[in-house]
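Duplicate of #3305? Posting structure anyway:
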């Protein structure tokens, strides 16, 4: 289905922002980008999704390998025992024998879901475990080469490594490119960099709406 994603500000990266902008998506491809009135007029039969805030390229998660293989993402039912944030390094190691294969698989699935809730569409890693490779493939994220060993603990927010939109985005939005988008409920780029990816309200992965904050 042809869909137009519109927002008060579209930030393509590598080009000027488009106030009252829109991105038209057909299948998994971007077919138009520009002012919303022009995009809608060129695609009158398209479904229009109006989002708040800013629309950007999907984000790139450089901590993909440690987040999926050396962290435990608690089940919501475990919140009283473990909280809601990933258990990293020493906390992860302390789980020891409690980490059987079903539990590891559940952690990986929840980790991927949480990445999508942070606007992530690309994940860095050389995933060697078949179960992890399969889960990433099923989720539809694009795997990119690792960018070197990250410093400090891994973080679900791609802005923790990328620092700004250009550093956190997978690449620019472009007509003909894959429709990997993220939407954040903030007024502009400065506010986005300050708030980080927790402000994400929607993630579009290969043209599919895979996350929408309710």
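Output from current build:
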């Amino acid at each position: 289905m042809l869909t137009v994603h519109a927002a008060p500000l579209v930030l393509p990266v590598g080009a000027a922002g488009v106030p009252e902008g829109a991105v038209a998506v057909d299948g998994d491809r971007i077919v138009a980008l520009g002012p919303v009135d022009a995009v809608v007029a060129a695609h009158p039969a398209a479904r229009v999704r109006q989002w708040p805030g800013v629309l950007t390229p999907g984000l790139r998660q450089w901590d993909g390998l440690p987040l999926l293989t050396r962290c435990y993402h608690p089940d919501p039912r475990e919140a009283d025992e473990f909280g809601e944030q990933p258990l990293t390094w020493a906390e992860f190691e302390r789980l020891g024998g409690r980490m059987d294969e079903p539990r590891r698989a559940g952690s990986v699935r929840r980790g991927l879901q949480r990445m999508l809730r942070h606007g992530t569409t690309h994940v860095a890693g050389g995933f060697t475990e078949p179960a992890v490779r399969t889960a990433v493939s099923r989720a539809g994220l694009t795997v990119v080469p690792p960018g070197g060993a990250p410093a400090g603990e891994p973080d679900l927010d791609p802005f923790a490594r990328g620092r700004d939109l250009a550093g956190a985005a997978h690449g620019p939005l472009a007509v003909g490119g894959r429709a990997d988008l993220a939407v954040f409920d903030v007024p502009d780029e400065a506010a986005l960099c300050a708030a980080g990816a927790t402000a994400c309200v929607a993630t579009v992965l290969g043209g599919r709406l895979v996350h929408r904050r309710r």
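Confirmed duplicate; merging threads. The domain at 2-58+169-212 is CATH 2.30.40.10 (Urease, subunit C; domain 1). Residues 101-116 form the longest helix (16 residues).
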